[in-house]
Amino acid sequence: MSETILDIRGLVTAFNTRNGAIRAVDGISLSVRKGTTLGIVGESGSGKSMLSLSVMGLVPPPGRIAEGQVLYRGTDLTKLSAAQMRDLRGNRIAMIFQEPMTSLNPVHTVGFQIIEALRAHRKESPARLKEEAIEALRKVRIPSPERRFDEYPHQLSGGMRQRVMIAMALVCKPDLLIADEPTTALDVTIQAQILELLRELQAETGMAIILITHDLGVVAQVADEVAVMYAGKVVERAPVSRIFQDPQHPYTIGLMGSMPRMEEDVDRLVSISGVVPPPFRLPPGCRFNPRCPFVGSECRVEQPALAAMTDTHAVACWKAPLEEHV
Amino acid sequence: MTKPLLELEDIRKLYPVKKGLIIQKEVGTVRAVDGVSFQLMPGETLAVVGESGCGKSTTARLAMRLIEPTSGTIRYDGQDITKATRQDMRRLRRDMQIIFQDPYSSLNPRMTVEEIIAEPMVVHNVGDRASRRDRVRELLRLVDLAPYHADRYPHEFSGGQRQRIGIARALSVSPRLIVCDEPVSALDVSIQAQIVNLLKDLQKEFGLTYLFISHGLAVVKHVSDRVAVMYLGQIVEIADKKNLYDNPRHPYTQALLAAAPEPDPSRRTAMKSLGGDLPSPLNPPSGCRFHTRCPLAQERCRSEVPALREIEPGHRAACHFAESVPSFTRFRNGEGIHPRLQERLALYARHKAALASVNA
């Protein structure tokens, strides 16, 4: 078993609001090992983006990490000073975002921005920095990187911009990459290119990836392990093949059914009724219970804990294993 | 034989690109939509798919004459509406409504839901105040919202609920044709499925005709009868749903199908990506517009523009080699869904239905 790069333990990220304290991330434990990809699936409002910002130490105020640990190779990131965190961020832990146009500075060249990322962590000569930046562009398969180095973001297509973002993130050779919906804004043919690129780069560098997405198809293609989030909690966690063959949590099953498939012709999609509850109006008991077709009286009273079904498969549901209870 | 409800014939929309502040010179033309023709039969759903910038949304707006075509003919119910006057168009638009992609920007935040839904009826002088009120309540029920929602404002609703309001507004004047411009693209997965199901139910109930614009081939497979694939302002392939998915004849259609991530971790190598980026519509490639990215491109493709021609009845493709393009069979029915998942989905659906009947 390879080394654990990131180990999140009982993480709670809270916001104090007029409606009381909101826990956007509510007691999450997850880990990811070297060379593997953890896919985090959830819809908007599930807390998946707040989870990644918590790991990066970028929780926007008035939010704060209220409980728990984020262990990066044994070091608790929640205990680090701002300066220590800056040393790690972009260097050992990197992040790419959904929208490549808003994450790149339009008034600087691509090359300048990559060097900027590099210079924050390395003391080297300008010539050497430029070499490394061009090498980073070449790594993400950008054709004629020497020419692209001097171009501005608006001169690049969406797919190229996302490649530049990846080059910037990987230029310091991090061992953890957090990719927050990296392909959502891209067209499907470009998405396929980017996913393939991430897979290849992982094979080359052995970095661990946390991939945040709402698209189960993307997860099926790149993740090794999957965590399904709902309303701030992980409701199911398993290796990717288990999730697609033997989903146990009703929410996971509902998501699978909601996804239109090309290899199938069904008259109606198995949709989930209702909507995700806002964080200040969470139902008592299991948070999914108002939408769950298998709901029982116990579900409305007490919240189920994430419990192991097998060594690798954990579910937070009173009805698991499903066939035995319904 | 039934007459088409909507017919586009060689429709073009060109945008001049100008340079200079005072003395403007035309320096080029963006060929947003470049010779698109199709027929839409009453009661069917024609989906138009393509990547961003292919002109699919422009086509949708041209079909309703929300923007004026540069050339070509639009016929609605057998009548040429390309030159129809504003007054005539206004009357016609009672018959054709549109649902937009973004449920946040397409509803006026200062109007109540009742005012929003009733607005088309006011514009078209349908009924009086009291009857419109009743109609709004009825429409809310139709789209699975509650009558008390009528007095609320859009900001009080989630994205999916707003899209339902948009659908109710489109239905208010009992149109025959609804243009759906990416109606589910901005929604969460679980909500997408709800809206897709709702659109299909409404079509069945009212015999609606849909022109469905989308970039997602999977969604399209669920809602459409026929599919047109667009690339750089042109239709490259159009066919019945079954033919298009089982036997795509244009390399671009095949590439789109191949690029969609498959929800099956056991078949990862299957995902093949198309190289390169979409060329600029300002300066489209010569010959076949797809030749710069086509894995099968030959000399002839660079020089000669392929016509959109019939390959088999009801199946047209714009490729010189449409007959000899290797067949593409990625999606066989049933493959890719594990039997256990299949069972569990069925179990979910059964329990959901049972619960719904208890609640009703």
UniProtKB/TrEMBL annotation, chain A:
Cell compartments where the protein resides: Cell inner membrane
Pfam families xrefs: ABC_tran, oligo_HPY
Domain of life, per lineage: Bacteria
Lipid bilayer topology: Peripheral membrane protein
CDD domains assigned: ABC_NikE_OppD_transporters
Keywords: ATP-binding, Cell membrane, Membrane, Nucleotide-binding, Transport
Name the record gives this protein: Peptide/nickel transport system ATP-binding protein/oligopeptide transport system ATP-binding protein
Source species: Microvirga subterranea
Lineage: Bacteria, Pseudomonadati, Pseudomonadota, Alphaproteobacteria, Hyphomicrobiales
From TrEMBL, chain B:
Annotated membrane topology: Peripheral membrane protein
Protein name (record): Oligopeptide transport system ATP-binding protein
Transport recorded as keyword: yes
A Pfam short name: ABC_tran
Entry similarity comment: Belongs to the ABC transporter superfamily.
Keywords: ATP-binding, Nucleotide-binding, Transport
Main location: membrane
Biological process annotations from GO: peptide transport; transmembrane transport
Protein's cellular compartments: Cell inner membrane
Gene source species: Microvirga subterranea
MF term (GO), any: ATP binding
Gene Ontology CC: one annotated term: plasma membrane
